[in-house]
Design goal:
Blueprint: H1 11-81, H2 86-98, E1 105-110, E2 115-119, E3 145-146, E4 150-151, E5 157-166, E6 172-181, H3 187-193, E7 202-206, E8 212-214, H4 230-236, E9 241-246, E10 252-260, E11 265-272, H5 273-321, H6 328-334, H7 340-360, H8 378-391, E12 395-402, H9 405-412, H10 414-431, E13 437-442, E14 445-451, H11 455-470, E15 482-489, H12 497-513, E16 519-521
Amino acid sequence: MQIRKPSRITLRQLVLILSIGSVLAMLVAGMAGAYRIQRDQLMEDTLAANQAFAEKLAASTSDLLRQAQQDLAYSAERVVQSGMDPTVLQSEVDRLRAQGIGFNTVSVMGSQGVILAVSPSALKVRGRRVDPNAPRSSPRHLTPTISSPFTSILGNLSILVTHPLYTAKDQYLGYLAGTVYLKSDGGLSRLIGQHYFRNDTYVYVVDATRRLLYHPQASRIGTEVVYDNPAIGAVLNGETGALRVTNSQGIDMLAGFAYVPAAKWGIVVQRPTQVTLARLDTLMRRALWLSLVPVGLLLALLWFLSGWVSRPLGELALVVQDGYEDNMARRIQSIRCWYFEAQRLQRALLEGLGAVGAQLDQLHDEAYQDPLTGLGNRRGLSLALQTCQALGQPFAVIALDIDFFKRINDTYGHDTGDQVIRQVGHWMRTQAREGDTLFRMGGEEFLALLPGAHQNAAANIAERLRAGIEHAAILPEETVTVSIGVAAWAPEDAIDPEQVLKAADQALYRAKQAGRNRVMGAEA
């Protein structure tokens, strides 16, 4: 048998490795779980905040446009009531522009396409015919409108808010128009720019053609967003919500968006994901540093406990390693084994030591093996029975006898008889379990000791053994059979283990009396 090289890892080291590994695994798993939860929560909160901000800006923009339309409607009524008085016209356009709603220019266009009044007057376009084909070409100004972005005659990217001028008899007199420049200090820029944004959060506004109407980078206002941005696609479909997107510079963004139905615009508020999570990284590092103190205390406690757990087993191992000596039992008993497994090992060592000590003198010069079969002999059986009794271990006994063995010897000779005995011993080995002990009691008699087995289990093993021998063709011209008796013993039985051997012999005798080649159990 090959002996393995002794391990250099002690029980204390193993306990520490497992404990430290478990602590570190739990720490890593806990930190990873906390990071994931906080990360998802931060992203959800940022998306919700950006969506709420976008909805607020969309509502404010709608209110601004609605107020602009109401102011134009009010001025239009006053202009019509004045009979298109030039003084009233100029007064109203000046008032509208000065109200701070956000108009960069305000003008009155006559029904023939001529500018009747304008503010600021420095533009010097009063009296200019803008549309020589009016009014036929101006149906879009017959109702209140908000135009799509366009480039004005002065070269400014603008939107135009208009309101028609009608008399009480529905005579069309022209329209009142307010212009908002998108690239300069107009209403939209003031509305969004008045808000304070932190941590790289910014807003942009797009129209139905994906053209930027507002952006923190003024150079991008008026340009078209050509890349596929899910947030822009969703908001221009009239949706309000939040998405994680990648912008035109390839930066991961958390975007909230809202739709402005009055102008068919989309407002998007977004913040870089990396900026959102930067504070979380700092918090997790602080949490990790703070956790090092309790982890260190826990590791110190594990160091102490591992020594406490491993000490009894280590001391028992040292006693066994020193070998047998007269005071060995006293040394084993002096070891403080305070938990169940160590106590069991201590008890097993004491029981084994007692059994060995009791048999050393008796077994000093005796042989325990049958030379013909290699099985145990009667002395080995006696020792095995004493060991089972000392350990309080139940067992079963199978007593076996070769049928008509004398006739086999007389017919074929003693050499053939010896061969039959060896073959029966072989078949007993094939049916034996690990831990079973087999013996030749002399002549054609055999016995098997089955530790831990009850009578029914032993009877099943015996039947397999009997059937195997019967069909084994041990002799070429004759079938060899065996008769078997089975008995069992348990610590609670009020009989000596030696009595079990007699019970098995009696069962064997009854098997022979019943016709041989059969298994009989001991009578209860």
